[in-house]
Amino acid sequence: MVEYMVNKVLKYIVENRMLLPNDKVIVGVSGGADSVCLLNILLEVKKTIPITLYVVHIEHGIRGIESEKDAEFVEKMALQYKLVFRRFSYDVATEAKKNGLGTEEMGRIIRYQAFENVRKEFDCNKIAVAHNKNDNAETMLFNLFRGSGLKGLSGILPVRFNIIRPLLCIERKEIETWLAEHNIAYRTDQTNFEEDYTRNRLRLNVLPYVQKNINKQALAHIDQASRIIYETWEYLEEETDKVYSKCVLRKDENMVIRIPEFIHVSDVIKKNIIRKCLESYQKGLKDITNKHIDCILTLVNNHTGKSIHLPNTLQASRGYNEIIIGFKSKALLLEKEEILIQAPGSYLFMGYKFEFSLEQYEKNQIIPENIYTKWFDYDKIGNDLRLRTKEAGDYLVVNSCGGTKKLKSYFIDEKIEKEKRDSIPLLCDNNHIIWAVGYRISEKYKISLDTKKVLKVQVNGGKE
Amino acid sequence: MVEYMVNKVLKYIVENRMLLPNDKVIVGVSGGADSVCLLNILLEVKKTIPITLYVVHIEHGIRGIESEKDAEFVEKMALQYKLVFRRFSYDVATEAKKNGLGTEEMGRIIRYQAFENVRKEFDCNKIAVAHNKNDNAETMLFNLFRGSGLKGLSGILPVRFNIIRPLLCIERKEIETWLAEHNIAYRTDQTNFEEDYTRNRLRLNVLPYVQKNINKQALAHIDQASRIIYETWEYLEEETDKVYSKCVLRKDENMVIRIPEFIHVSDVIKKNIIRKCLESYQKGLKDITNKHIDCILTLVNNHTGKSIHLPNTLQASRGYNEIIIGFKSKALLLEKEEILIQAPGSYLFMGYKFEFSLEQYEKNQIIPENIYTKWFDYDKIGNDLRLRTKEAGDYLVVNSCGGTKKLKSYFIDEKIEKEKRDSIPLLCDNNHIIWAVGYRISEKYKISLDTKKVLKVQVNGGKE
C-alpha cells in the first residue's frame, strides 16, 4: 500500500496545484523535524512528479555552536541524497537590531532573501517551506489575539506566489511519528522550547491547555476555521474587485470613489473598497484602522464639502458625487478644523493622534509631568469638548484663584510668533482653553483632591 | 456631563435600534454584577427613552441557600425601584438530567421559557439580557475551539428577535468599576469561580493568560474579530439568499438545485446554498459536516446518476441538470452501494458512520473486544479497501493457518436469513472480507506480534 503520509501530502500538492513535472524546487531545511520531514517526503513525491530539489540552509547564528552543528547535519543529509546544497550565515540578532525589527521578523526576511539568491543561481521556480497544521493554527490564534481582519485570521496559505507549503495538511505530532517510524534523524531546536517568543507561549502553554481542557480537537478546529475564513476572504476580494474597477479611478493626484456606482453594494464591500483605495494610494495600510474606514464610510451619507483627517496627512472628502482620497494640500492643512470629542476615543487632528481615556482617580495618585500626556478633572468639563485652533474670545485660567487670561495675551507673553499660532492644537470647553498642546493647561481642570474621574489625553503616544 | 457608561450604552442602544419609546422591556436579573448593572443603566436610559421595565429572576436551585438569598436580593431591588417583579424556581440539574442536556444548556432554555411567560402576562415586546464584551469574546473562542462555521465565530448578537443585549459594548471590568463607583451592591455567583464548566476554564485560565502574556488588548481584539466575521457572515447570507431563490425549488418530496442557475456562482455561495437546502429539508443541520457539503459540491462536476449517501438516510444525486436532495426511498436503500476507502477518514455507508483511523501498534498493547470497533493489521491490506455489500466470490480466512471459507457458507452456517444478507455492510480487500460488520473479522488481518501500523475502524462511534 502506498504510504499514508506521502499519499496525503501528494494529494494536498495536487489539490493545491503546488508542483508540476520538471519544477525546480528550493527546499528550506533548518534540520528540525518539520523541514527534515519535508525534504524526505518531497524525495518520495519526486517518484510520482519528476522535480529537482535544491537544499538551502540558513544559519541564524543565534544558537552558537548548535547552529554550526545544524548546518553540518543538513549538508550531510543533502550530500547523502546527492542534492545541491547551499548554506547562508547571518547574524540575525545584529541585523534585527540594525533594522529595528524583531528577531523572528528579521529571520523571516533573511530567509526569503537567501531563497531568492539560490532561485536566481539555478533558475528555480518554486520554494518549499515546512509549515504544518500547528503553525497554521498558531498563526491564526496569534493574529486573533493581537488584532486582525479576515486576512490575518486566514492563517498561512498553502501557496503564495512561488512559495509552497506541502506540510500544511499535517500535524506536528504526525511528522514526529513518521520520522520515528522511518528512523530519520533530525536536530532539536532548543529555541522552540524556550518561552522567548510570544508565539512560543501560544505553542507551549495556550494550545496544549486548550487541547487538554477545552477540546481535544481544538487544533483541527482552528485549522478548519482558518480555511473557512480564507475561502470567505477570497470571495470578498473577488466581489470587491468587481465593484472596485467600476467605481474607483485616479484623478489628478487623488483617488476618487464614484458614489453612484458605490452606493448600492453592501457595507462590507464598501469598506473593502475604501481599504483597497487607501492601500493602493499610500502603498499599504500603515496606521489605518477599522475606525478610519468606518469614518470614511459615513461620508457617503454626508453633505458635500465635509472631510475627514487621516494619519500620514491623508484626507478623505465628500464631493458632490464622489469621495476623494488624497494627501492634504498645504492649503487644506491650514484650513480650519474642528472635532467634537467623546471620550474615550482616538482622534486625528492636524496630523497628531489624540487618545482620550477615562480613569478612576485614586487619592494621592501621583500625576506625572509630561508635555504630551495630560490629566484633567473630567467632571469639570462641560458638554462641548472640542479640538480646534484659536478663535476670538478664547481664554485660560492661569492661577488657582480662577484668574483668567486671554489666549491672545498668553501667546504674546510667551512670544509665540503670529504665523505659528494657528498651528497650535487646542483642547477646548467652549471658549475655555483646557490645553494649548505643547504649551500649558488651564488651572481650572487640574486634578485636585476632589477629583473622581480623570480624563487622560495623550498626543502621538505621549512621546516627548 | 452625562455619565460616560450610560452614554456609551445609550449610543449602542440607538446604533443597534434596541429600544423605542413605550417599549415594555423584561430585564433578566440574576443578582450578579452584570444584570444588576444592566437594570441600573436601563433605569438611567429610561430618562431619555421612555420605557417600562419588568424584573424577572430565575432561581436555578443549583446554589442552595445562596439561590434563595439571590432571589430575595433581586426582589428587594425591584421593590426599591417600584418595578414589577416575577420569580421563577426550577431545579435545573434535575431538568437537565431528565432532558439529557448540560446544565448550562438547560438553564438557558428554562430562562427563555420564563421570559416568555412574563412577556405574555404583561404584553412585553423586548427582553434585555446582560451579556457583556467578555461573554462575547469567550463565546467566540469557545466556538473556535470546539469547531464552528462563520456563524458561531460571530459570537453573541446585540439583537436577536426580541432579545436585546445593551451591555455587549462594555467589558466586565468596566461594569465592576461602575458598580463600585455608584455603591451599587450585587451578589457574587460562586459558580463563576469554580472550574466546573469548560467555559469557565476559558474565562478563568485561558483569557487571563493570553491578556497577560500575549496581548493586553486580546479581549477587545477577539471582540472586534467576531464583529468583522458577523458582518461578513451577514453579507454571505444575503448573497446566498439572492441565488437560492433562483436555483432551489421543491419537487415532489425532494429539494432540487438547478445547475444552470447555480454553476456560475462562487464555491462559497454554492456551499452555503447546499447547506441551506439540507437545513430546510431536515429542519436543521444534524450530523451534517463540511465534508458532506464538499462531497455534494463535487456532484456538480460529476456524471448524471451518481449519488452520495448522507447521515439520517439523506441522499444527494446528480440529475441531468440538477442536484436532488431527499430521503432515500426504500428502493434506493437496497440499491448496490460501494465506497473506496482511504484511511484516515469518515464515510457514510448504508446509514452507518464508519470512522477509519491509523495508529502506531505498541508491542503488548491490549486490543479490546468490541463488536463495533475493530483493529486490523494495516500493512496486510492491499490497495483496494472498500465498503460494499456481498458479491459472488467473497471469502474469509477463518483460522490462523489461513484456511478460507466462502462468505455464503459462513452466512448459512450462522443461520443469517437470505433477506438480511444484503443489508450487512462488508469491509473488503477485493473479494477477501476483512470484516462482516456485526459478525466477524477475517483471521488474516488480525493484529499480531509483527504488526506495525493499526487500522482502527469504528461504526457509529463504537457504541454497542
DSSP helix fraction of chain A = 40-55%
Structural class of chain A: alpha+beta
Annotation, overall tally of beta strands of chain A:
22
Alpha-carbon distance between the termini of chain A?
Answer: 69 Å
Beta-sheet strand percentage of chain A?
A: 15-25%
Which value, in Å, is the CA radius of gyration of chain A? 29 Å
Multimer state: homodimer
CATH class of the largest domain in chain A: Alpha Beta
Number of domains of chain A: 3
Indicate the CATH architecture of the largest domain in chain A: 3-Layer(aba) Sandwich
Low-confidence stretches of chain A: 330-335
Let me know the average pLDDT of chain A. Answer: 87
- The shape of chain A is elongated
CATH superfamily of the largest domain in chain A: HUPs
Number of helices of chain A: 16
Major sheet: arrangement of strands of chain A: 3-2-1-4-6-5
CATH-defined fold name of the largest domain in chain A: Rossmann fold
- What can be said about the biggest beta sheet of chain A? 6 strands, mixed
Main location (chains A, B): cytoplasm
Subcellular location (chains A, B): Cytoplasm
Family (chains A, B): Belongs to the tRNA(Ile)-lysidine synthase family.
Domain Lysidine-tRNA(Ile) synthetase C-terminal (chains A, B): 385-457
